[in-house]
Amino acid sequence: MNGPPDALEAQIIRSWNINAKPWARAVQAASILSRTLATDRAIVDAVRSVSPGRVFDIGCGEGWLARALCALGVEVTGVDAVPELVAEAVRGGGGRYQVADYLAIAERRLECGPFDAAVCNFSLLGKESVNGLLSAIPHYLDAAGHLIVQTLHPVAACGEHAYRDGWRAGTWAGFGAEFSDPAPWYFRTLASWVSMLRQCGFEILECREPTAPDAIAPASVVFICKELTR
Amino acid sequence: MNGPPDALEAQIIRSWNINAKPWARAVQAASILSRTLATDRAIVDAVRSVSPGRVFDIGCGEGWLARALCALGVEVTGVDAVPELVAEAVRGGGGRYQVADYLAIAERRLECGPFDAAVCNFSLLGKESVNGLLSAIPHYLDAAGHLIVQTLHPVAACGEHAYRDGWRAGTWAGFGAEFSDPAPWYFRTLASWVSMLRQCGFEILECREPTAPDAIAPASVVFICKELTR
Predict the structure, then answer these.
(1) Taking the model in full, what pTM does it have?
(2) Residue B127 at interface with chain A, using a CB cutoff of 8 Å
(3) What is the extent of the structural domain holding A218?
(4) What ipTM, to 2 d.p.?
(5) Which CATH number does the domain housing residue B102 bear?
(6) For residues A197 and A221, is the Cβ–Cβ distance under 8 A?
(7) Residue A226 dihedral angles phi and psi, to the nearest 5°
(8) Which end of chain B is more exposed for a tag (fewer CB within 10 A), N or C?
(9) CA–CA min distance B196, chain A (Å)
């Protein structure tokens, strides 16, 4: 997967804009098996484990997680770069939503917070954009706030590629014909995730590996982190 | 893999006593490919990264790591439960060695230390024995001391088994005919390693995934940890 980094980051946003409608439908119809079998519950449980009152849902998509947390009494602000997904989230309710890209968050231009916790549920897809975003998160958190990240499990999702950081071509395999133009994504090894989280100011308190019933490999990894003392 | 836990822990020690001679020969002849291609250097580099003056080498075997660290000016005390391996280590020099099992360390009966760092290089094979051992390590360390663990990579070494904690049958596949009676070992998921290290009083500073040149999967995982503030 080659290309100028900025172009790859831009492709991610473009792809999600193109696929916003079928994506929102797929999530709302609970038709993504790995989500319903393992990872949806895992992210809700992980957020609950730190008992936050106010949560910043970064890359909230069509808002299912914000709604699930809201039903548990949590106050949620969701942001996403894709206007159509945010419109869908607003329609569904459950939180306050706004359109914002990761650069706006990274540059501390968003007026919201402070939050007790930030959550990124399968929403950290790029390279520099992710570094910039995570480094800025402490700005939006109360002191000693939490960060919870769910992402593809680096080892289990490595596939036939060499196990090292790099851009990978996306795929909609297993999704319907209405999906197109899959986004590239930046693969990080476990070592790189741990190192990036620490460099961005977080200590890993716990790591979980949600696994679907009867599955051999974990479906994802969840990092539950706390801000390093400032 | 079934059996009373104590019997399985005892089998580990018995197996290493039986295989001490061929093991020492294999290490000294550098005939274990994963070690020479990736993991030997990885553990030496990891220990060096925390610049310790005095190191506690737990499960030192025939002493190659103690000798390697000694050659870098580090003072090493090595312990192992297998008398024949310790005898081999003493012959090779490079550190002070003693025969001790993990229970003796766990019960704080060893008179040595304090150390700047403890290292466990592929030497955490059991279940309760390992929990007991790691919990006691802070007792042998200076305040804010380091712990460095290298172990099989949980995801890469999971094989065809379900990805969950449990005893596994050992194998000497790839080793010579002079090896016999492989030891059982306790498989831990990544989540369990992270959780155990924290419960035993350590914060993970860094995680490394040594990978042999041209290999697809990492050969091991190395956790570089520091004592949580007491």
Answers:
(1) 0.92
(2) no
(3) 5-227
(4) 0.86
(5) 3.40.50.150
(6) no
(7) -130, 145
(8) C
(9) 10
Element (H, E) at A134: helix A128-140
Residue range B57-84, pLDDT digits in tens: 999 999 999 999 999 999 999 999 999 9
Q: How many domains does chain A have?
A: 1
Please tell me the predicted confidence (pLDDT) of residue B158: 79
Q: What is the spatial distance between Cα A80 and Cα A185, in angstroms, rounded to a whole number?
A: 17
Q: Which of A191, A203, A206 sits opposite B208 (nearest CB)?
A: A191
Mark yes or no for CB contact B155/A160 under 8 Å: no
As a whole number of angstroms, the distance between CA A38 and CA A60 comes to 18
Over residues A88-123, the pLDDT tens digits come to: 999 999 999 999 999 999 999 999 999 999 999 999
Peptide bond just before A114 cis, omega within 30 deg = yes
Q: In this complex, do B195 and A218 lie within 8 Å of one another by their Cβ atoms?
A: no
Q: Identify how many contiguous H helices and E strands chain A contains and give both numbers.
A: 8, 9
CA-nearest of A94, A129, A98 to A113 is A98
Q: What percent of chain A has pLDDT over 70?
A: 98
**Among B189, B191, B217, whose Cβ lies nearest the Cβ of A163?**
B217
Strands (E), B51-128: 54-58, 75-80, 96-99, 115-121
Verify whether the Cβ–Cβ distance B160 to A216 is below 8 Å.
yes
